[in-house]
Amino acid sequence: xxxxxxEKIWENKxxxxxxxxxxxxxxxxxxxxxxxxxxxxxxxxxxxxxCKVCIFGDVRWFERNNKELESYKGMVFTNVSSLLNSKIxxxxxxxxxxxxFYTDSLGWNSNTGFSAINLALLFGAxxxxxxxxxxxxxxxxxxxxxxxxxxxxxxxxxxxxxKSGGCVTKDWKGKFPDQQVINxxxxxxxxxxxxxxxxxxxxxxxxxxxx
Length: 211
What we know:
By secondary structure, the chain is of the alpha/beta class. The protein has helices spanning 59-69, 112-122, 156-162, 165-175, 200-210, and strands at residues 14-18, 37-40, 53-56, 75-78, 91-93, 96-97, 106-107, 127-131, 180-185, 197-199. The protein has one domain: sialyltransferase cstii, chain A, CATH 3.90.1480. Helices cover 24% and strands 18% of the residues. Strands 5-4-3-2-1-8-9-10 form an eight-stranded parallel beta sheet, sandwiched between helices.
């Protein structure tokens, strides 16, 4: 497909972003079936009923997963520069910017999760809930809720992820002032402090009651 033209397909709606953090180990994925969702990287393997949109930002990851992505039924997005003008039928591409959030591109910030937030903002989502944005290793040294990690990097990778926090905060508040981003976290599970937080269990208990 060609370069994606910004369209507010989720305007004024709520959505969830599925990060890769180990805090989602054992999560009841069917809770997301009725929701609008963007999944980072391997979240597409949950299927399009759970992960409606997949986003990735690493060409090595794409090389390992492109065959499986062909049969994935959701939308697929990337800001990998080398794929920008590709003619891959299922792939929606956007220009990559190094840091921050943008209205016509996807900020990378060294992390697919931040690119996913930028995409949700471009979709026009009014409230964006973050899941699995741990930005640190779990107590038992795990990076992810899945076992498909691309490399064997240690805790230092998260310092790079968090380094762009100032640019992200400035652009979120300056360019998307009417859209909320909320990190839904278990106690002590996340080092991401630039967004407001909600307690994970309390959030889902209240949402079940409303539903």
